[in-house]
Amino acid sequence: MDTNIKVIQPAGVLDGNQTHQLRGELNDVVGTGARLILVDLTNVTFMDSSGLAALVTAFKTVRSAGGKLCVCSVNQQVRMLFELTSMDRVFEIFTDQDHFIKTLTPEV
């Protein structure tokens, strides 16, 4: 995978207790100069509003740095959270990493 592309794969419950780790990872990745960041939610079993807030903050940070943040492999609960908050209109959501790579890597 291109060095300008970074994948972050949080796991378990993405709630107030776990968002600090996610924010730290995302800040580290932005600091490396990655222009395209994929948050792969395959292993996330549940996400609450604080997890979503961490993604929104990261989205804004990445965008202000001239990059793009996308998500993939969302489960039904996470998709519902995105839809209820209309964040599905903000984030590009891919079915999986392969779909992401086939769709976006020509941009980098």
What secondary-structure arrangement, pairings included, does this model have?
Blueprint: E1 5-8, E2 11-14, H1 19-31, E3 36-40, E4 43-47, H2 49-64, E5 68-72, H3 76-84, E6 92-94, H4 97-104
Parallel strand pairs: 1-3, 2-4, 3-5, 5-6
Description:
It is a single chain. The protein has 108 residues and is of the alpha/beta class. It has one domain (5-101): STAS domain (Transcription Regulator spoIIAA, 2-Layer Sandwich), CATH 3.30.750. 43% of the residues lie in helices and 24% in strands. It contains 4 helices and 6 strands. α3 (76-84) links the parallel β5 and β6 (92-94). The longest helix is centred in the middle third of the chain and has 16 residues, at 49-64. The model has no long low-confidence stretch (mean pLDDT 90).
